[in-house]
From TrEMBL:
Name listed for the protein in its UniProt record: DUF6362 domain-containing protein
Pfam families given in the database record: DUF6362
Native species: Zavarzinia compransoris
Residues in DUF6362 domain copies: 19-119
InterPro entries, per the entry: DUF6362 (IPR045942)
Origin superkingdom: Bacteria
Length: 140
């Protein structure tokens, strides 16, 4: 049974997975390439040095599959609901998003809750349960 909290968690995982996917175009835009493999540093050495950003590794294949399914859920929403749901899942605070849009943060929270209910309601329908059950077994 899908709930708004499960849908929100899946959207957050999708945003994190998308963030962790490698950007294959950057190496061609920079013009400088190396045949050497990337250096793997120990976490203690990385934390001790200054100016080095720690980047998480690439996402698992299962996370990428869940990302693809989750992105499809956004088509159930209106454009405004889609933007709000994805922005909050990406880590933008409700207060900051409210300032960007020009409304109160409670309005943002209400619109996000409505969007999550729409997605959860669709996933809980009998026709969608076959597909949702397979995806749900994958780690939600």
């Amino acid at each position: 049974m899908w709930t708004g909290e499960l849908v929100a968690a899946r959207l957050e995982e999708a945003a994190d997975t998308l963030r962790r996917l490698p950007d294959t175009e950057t190496k061609y835009r920079l013009g400088l390439r190396s045949a050497w493999p990337d250096v793997v540093r120990e976490s203690v050495a990385v934390q001790a040095s200054t100016g080095v950003r720690v980047r998480l590794g690439p996402p698992s294949p299962g996370a990428i599959d869940r990302l693809e399914a989750t992105i499809g859920w956004l088509s159930l929403l209106t454009e405004a609901q889609r933007r709000i749901a994805w922005a909050l899942a990406s880590g933008i605070s409700a207060a900051r998003l409210a300032r960007m849009i020009g409304c109160h943060r409670n309005t943002i929270a209400n619109r996000q809750a409505a969007a999550l209910r729409i997605i959860a309601g669709h996933l809980n329908q009998p026709a969608a349960q076959g597909a949702g059950a397979c995806v749900q077994d994958m780690g939600v």
